[in-house]
Amino acid sequence: MKPATSLNNVVICRRCDAALSKPNIQPGHKAICPGCGALLFELKKNPMERTMAVSLAGLLLFFPAILLPMIGVSAAGAHNEASLIDCIVILLNSGYHIVALIVFLFTIAIPIVHLLAAFYIAVAVHFNKISQSLLVFFRSYHVLDSWTMLHVFFLGVIVSIYKIVDLAELTVGGGLISFVLLLICSTLVSVTLDHYYVWEKMEQALED
Ligand SMILES: [Zn+2]
């Protein structure tokens, strides 16, 4: 949930528009509007440490996800395995240039930038190295965040095209398992990266 709009020490309730002085709450607790009971904001426990851990795990998973065989195809007694990179090369060689570009963007480029951005924001906030550029970075992260779920869709595209190209038996490889774990990490990052906490820290640092 998006945090209530804050202006220094004032919090505006998004549901009833009440202007309240910002309550001091401990990590792991939620601030509730006394008027209407809506959630004003919540402080998660160790949000930056969790984001660092999850985004780093996601970044490490990229190597097996890209390089290990993603799907195996058995046909006419022969067995072929293809990694994500192979799939993109196959798409390029088959003349599906735009599909290849879109698959590359949504399965490799955007998830990598999304995880790197989350990792950078978490490290910068955790070690209090907040600069004006982090503000730009954080806004860009918001834009990317809304695009990340699309890679689930494009993973489906890869499998479908493979099925169309060769109506054969498909087996799941280590690459696909790593990719699914990577998607889970990417989704967890969106949950652990506490936007309210980051805005608070940035406001404090940039005011000084
Ligand atoms: Zn309210």
TrEMBL record:
Entry annotated with the keyword Transmembrane: yes
Chain segments annotated as coiled-coil in the UniProt record: none
Entry keyword annotation includes Transmembrane helix: yes
Membrane-crossing residue ranges in chain numbering: 53-78, 98-125, 146-165, 171-193
Keywords linked to the UniProt accession: Membrane, Transmembrane, Transmembrane helix
One of the Pfam families matching this protein, by short name: PqiA
Name this polypeptide is given: Paraquat-inducible protein A
Source organism of the structure: Thalassotalea euphylliae
